[in-house]
Amino acid sequence: MILPALIAIGVVIGYPIVRAIQLSTTEFNPLAGADPTPVGTANFEQLVDDPIFWEALRNTAIYTFGSVAIAAIIGAMVALLVENLSGRARVVKTLLLTPWAVPFVVVAFLFRYMFDAQSGVINALLMDLNITDQPVDWLVSSTWALPTVVAANVWAQTPFFVLVFGAALAAVPNEVIESARVDSTRGLAMARHIKLPYMRNAALIASLLMVVANFNDFGKIWAMTEGGPGYATTTLVVWVYRLAFTSFELGYASAVGVIWLVLLLLFAIAYARMLRRGS
Amino acid sequence: MAVAVSERSAPAARPAPRARRQRGGRAARNVGIAVALFFALAPIYWMLSTSFKPELEATQSDPSLLPNEYTMGNYQSLFNGAMPFGSFVVNSVITAAAAALISLVLSAFGGYALSKGNFRLREPMSFLILLTRMLPLVVLLGPLYLLLLNANLINTMLGLIIGYISFAVPFGVWLMKGFFDGVPKEVIEAARVDGYPRWQILLRVALPLTIPGLLTTATFIFIDVWNNIIYPLALINTIENQVLPSGLMLSFTGQFKTNWGGMMAASVLTSIPLLIAFFAIQRSMVRGLTAGAVAGE
């Protein structure tokens, strides 16, 4: 009974993986009409010396872990704030989740507009408050483009953490809260010493999911900057796409992809270890 | 309702110092919630407000909180302007619905086998399916492109649907496995003892018990597909055949780069189906959880 699903997965995932590994040892431009030329490990040797590879790797790390760290911290705080809302006030919880339901391309558009150098509301606010006296070139500046893209991602991703932490908080046993209260533990102390430890596992699992999502995130970055200016917001996924579909170096692109598969696998193993040690 | 009443009937006489401290804490909490709400909703408000502004007002460097002059022009020109927005919508709806439906059928079979099947490779296969969820789609895209190129399916809806299915099925199988795990083994066993053939157990016994799961899975897949931009960008090469995210991205990066009003109007319309799906799934997720709890008794 699993056969139909397996065949579907085999054709559209199994085959591409094998083919990607095979292509990574060739030089291949599909538009040139010629067949792939085997080049051995040349692609991988070129990769190590390619400054763009290292820049993309750095950008990927900042985008992936930066977004997750910030969104998880804000998400935990918000979850603690709205934990005890009840009755009609619960609508606040739903409203706080809305950014999650906004399509990625719309997130990108919203932040492109708000952070536009000329017509953006962020620059207008900063200048009204005299924080800066001339507009900041957010998305066209090689310094600010990556932080701006991270900001957009944090906005879109925080609700997920609010939801997960909310569920984790709801699972804290009442007796624990009660006995802490009897010991007159309240407010911040309660949050830090009693509730946070219960949120640890939820935090690990949720951030694993989001790390993987960010690692593979293409839509938001591409619709905001197309990886630019220069390579300032080019993460690995954006770079592979640029190589494969704008410069049509499919062999080289596949080599990057294979390295990336290895990295992801290492990360997954490290994470599984961490999770097992935690429990 | 009941909760609102109990709030009102909170003890009227509280010890004074603790009340003051609580009130202070509550005020701080409310400020925090207000700040959080502001950050979550301000961009959405800004999108709505801008979508009703005339072009000049949307581009001015000193933005107005509410449109000084309301216009529907941004929405109208989406449908009779130079951009094939209508085609984007139609293509998006058709491909997302088809991909969700096909993936759902495949996922239901696969998920059932992984949850209730009796075969040796069940455990490693489940893990493998989970692992494919972590795969970078872009690495698979090059070879998939070649595959579809050889099959003459580049720039067709069918090709795009196949692309979508490639990431939707592993995800769907994993979700459906979880929902089938909630169906007690005894129910399946009882049907088997009654002599039902295997496919009938799935159709008549297991599936009806997982209807919330099916709905949730279909909606999750729909949301995933509706959001995807990399597959249509790579597999479709004419603007009329694009779907919403890719079509809008191409239009508003090129020709209509600073048409902010139009961009925000398109954003509003693109968000609506996803917002509906999101709130629909919220309810069915709760129902799925309660169904599981009842079945577990």
| Global mean pLDDT of chain A | 82
CATH homologous superfamily caption of chain B:
MetI-like
Q: Assign an overall shape of chain A.
A: globular
Whole-number radius of gyration of chain B? Answer: 25 Å
SSE arrangement of chain A, N to C = HEEHHHHHHHHHHH
CATH topology annotation of chain B: MetI-like fold
Order of helices and strands of chain B: HHHHHHHHHHHHHH
Using only C-alpha atoms, the radius of gyration of chain A works out to 23 Å
The number of distinct structural domains of chain B comes to 1
Instruction: State the domain count of chain A.
Output: 1
User: β content of chain B, as a range?
Assistant: under 5%
Structural class of chain B: mainly alpha
Q: How many distinct beta strands of chain B?
A: 0
- Strands of the widest sheet of chain A, in order across it, are 1-2
Q: Could you list the spans of chain A in which at least 5 consecutive residues all have pLDDT below 50?
A: none
Instruction: State the helix count of chain B.
Output: 14
- Kindly provide the name of the CATH class of chain A: Mainly Alpha
